[in-house]
């Protein structure tokens, strides 16, 4: 069955019922209760979003010097205090959208991007981010520019490492940590800077299954807070959707579907079935 999706939609009704029978991917049992992807969390009852892109365009200059559009009228909204996964085929613009969320890494040419502050980006390869000799020194590194006492720094570092389950590794030389443990140190660094938004780019690419689950569970704990954090995670791994409150799917520079994990899974399975 062909499904033409040109704007953010959710799949429902007869289409959905007809497709469910052919699905091959089912959600594994979840270890947490996802929040409603359409939740409202502000005091006045209106929806509150920590990440919001509206009709965003991003262009880059290609190797030949020509300007290449990468994001084309891309829109997305991530509710406060939720973990959302961003999926889509290679080259559709996922990382670009994440980088556009951090002005400076990639500046939109048109449209609006609003991301709550402070915000942090965690890279795919922790070796590009975790640079100090010990876990403690690395998490403390970003705090140097703040006017904090030594005791405050120590306290923040410990609390941040504890949030990702790494409080027993304070003095551990970085080169002796696994990839997943380094990723958790990188996340702790963002938390120590009291980041309200975490932008996460394929964090588990280089990790085995144990480390993958360790990082996913750490991010879930961090998102739950307190204080709660909002997170957008780019992934190709469908099993990671089981940890998300919501999901968005991109194609050709724009978000074509955004909402519940079940809807995005259904859409991906539909696409697989069409191949
Ligand atoms: N600085 C740049 N110069 C030239 N092309 C770029 C640049 N940045 C991104 N692109 C192109 O924009 C497109 C989208 O790239 P992006 O990395 O955002 O995709 P992606 O969906 O994250 O891909 P993947 O899943 O493979 O990581 C690709 O075709 C990429 O080659």
Distinct compounds present: adenosine-5'-triphosphate
- What's the overall geometry? globular
Instruction: Characterize the largest beta sheet: strand count, sense, and whether it forms a barrel.
Output: 6 strands, mixed
Share of helical residues: 25-40%
Alpha-carbon Rg, integer:
19 Å
**CATH architecture classification name of the domain at 79-107 and 117-274:** 3-Layer(aba) Sandwich
Strand content: 15-25%
CATH topology description of the domain at 79-107 and 117-274:
Rossmann fold
Number of helices: 7
What class, by secondary structure content? alpha/beta
| Topology as a string of helices (H) and strands (E) | HEEEHEEHHHEHEEEH
| Distance between the ends | 11 Å
Count the strands?
A: 9
Q: What is the CATH class of the domain at 79-107 and 117-274?
A: Alpha Beta
Strand order of the largest sheet: 5-6-7-3-8-9
Uncertain regions spanning at least 5 consecutive residues: 1-29
Mean pLDDT: 83
CATH superfamily of the domain at 79-107 and 117-274: P-loop containing nucleotide triphosphate hydrolases
């Amino acid at each position: 069955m062909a499904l033409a999706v040109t704007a953010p939609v959710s799949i429902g009704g007869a289409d959905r019922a007809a497709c469910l029978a052919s699905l091959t991917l089912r959600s594994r049992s979840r270890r947490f209760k996802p929040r409603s992807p359409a939740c409202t969390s502000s005091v006045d009852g209106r929806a509150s979003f920590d990440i919001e892109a509206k009709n965003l365009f991003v262009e880059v200059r290609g190797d030949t010097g020509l300007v290449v559009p990468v994001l084309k009228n891309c829109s997305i909204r991530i509710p406060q205090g939720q973990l959302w996964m961003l999926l889509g085929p290679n080259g559709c613009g996922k990382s670009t959208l994440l980088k556009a969320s951090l002005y400076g890494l990639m500046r939109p040419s048109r449209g609006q991007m609003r991301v709550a502050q402070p915000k942090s980006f965690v890279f795919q390869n922790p070796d590009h981010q975790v640079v100090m000799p010990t876990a403690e020194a690395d998490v403390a590194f970003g705090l140097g520019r703040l006017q904090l006492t030594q005791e405050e720094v120590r306290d923040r570092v410990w609390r941040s490492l504890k949030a990702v389950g790494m409080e027993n590794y304070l003095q551990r030389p970085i080169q002796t940590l696994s990839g997943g443990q380094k990723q958790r140190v990188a996340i702790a660094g963002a938390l120590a800077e009291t980041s309200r938004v975490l932008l996460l780019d394929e964090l588990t690419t280089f990790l085995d299954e144990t480390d993958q689950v360790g990082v996913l569970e750490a991010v879930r704990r961090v998102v739950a807070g307190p204080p709660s954090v909002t997170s957008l995670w780019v992934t190709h791994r469908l099993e990671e959707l089981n940890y998300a409150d919501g999901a968005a799917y991109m194609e050709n520079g724009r978000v074509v579907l955004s909402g519940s994990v079940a809807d995005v899974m259904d859409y991906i399975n539909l696409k697989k079935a069409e191949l």
